[in-house]
């Protein structure tokens, strides 16, 4: 149960596990952005959920085609960063002024909200910014210097003029033959089986792609 939950969580970040410890999925190349967008839409209609599209630049409509929905970064940031920063700033000033080191200055209250606003504002913004960046990295599965796709020499063109779609073997509907036929029908070519050989086997020839690969999702 816990293993399945962890696998689903990783899949939501675009981190797919290899099937039988070796086959990561099928990688197909498409001729242009429109073809890639159409393929992503049809792959999702076919019932696949563990797939990703890669291109040198963002493609308008790709998020909708892949069924990604709206980003959850703002929602998570609000509850983990904004509220935490606000509460910490309020508590810190109350504790220092009214409990830890109270000073009677002209009969003024030990703690008051108006003079506390600047600190509350600053910590709220600081914690929100840190939480936003951390949430963005986590939901994208970053940093991730290794990906089985880097074994494909053809995939190195993804930062130049290549448009690719990969269907992960972890998808319940994945079948090497049927999935390949679907990708071919959608106009995919240079279709290849990607194997997960482990981080230690990445060669210098493919390593640069790890630093520059761009995903539209």
TrEMBL record:
Transmembrane segments: 73-96, 116-139
Keyword Transmembrane helix: yes
Keywords attached to this entry: Membrane, Transmembrane, Transmembrane helix
Superkingdom classification of source: Bacteria
Keyword Glycosyltransferase attached: no
Name by which UniProt lists this protein: DUF3341 domain-containing protein
């Amino acid at each position: 149960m816990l293993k399945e939950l962890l696998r689903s969580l990783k899949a939501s970040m675009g981190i797919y596990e290899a099937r039988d410890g070796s086959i990561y999925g099928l990688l197909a190349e498409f001729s242009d952005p429109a073809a890639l967008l159409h393929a992503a839409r049809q792959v999702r209609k076919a019932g696949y959920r563990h797939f990703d599209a890669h291109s040198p630049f963002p493609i308008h409509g790709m998020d909708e085609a892949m069924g990604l929905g709206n980003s959850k970064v703002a929602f998570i940031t609000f509850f983990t960063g904004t509220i935490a920063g606000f509460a910490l700033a309020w508590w810190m000033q109350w504790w220092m002024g009214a409990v830890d080191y109270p000073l009677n200055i002209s009969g003024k209250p030990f703690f008051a909200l108006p003079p506390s606003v600047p600190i509350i504002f600053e910590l709220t913004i600081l914690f929100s910014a840190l939480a936003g960046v951390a949430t963005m990295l986590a939901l994208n599965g970053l940093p991730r210097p290794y990906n089985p796709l880097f074994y494909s020499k053809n995939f190195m063109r993804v930062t130049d003029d290549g448009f690719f779609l990969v269907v992960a073997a972890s998808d319940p509907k994945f079948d090497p033959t049927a999935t390949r036929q679907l990708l071919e029908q959608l106009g995919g070519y240079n279709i290849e089986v990607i194997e997960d050989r482990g981080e230690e086997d990445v060669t210098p020839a493919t390593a640069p792609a790890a630093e520059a690969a761009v995903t539209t999702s």
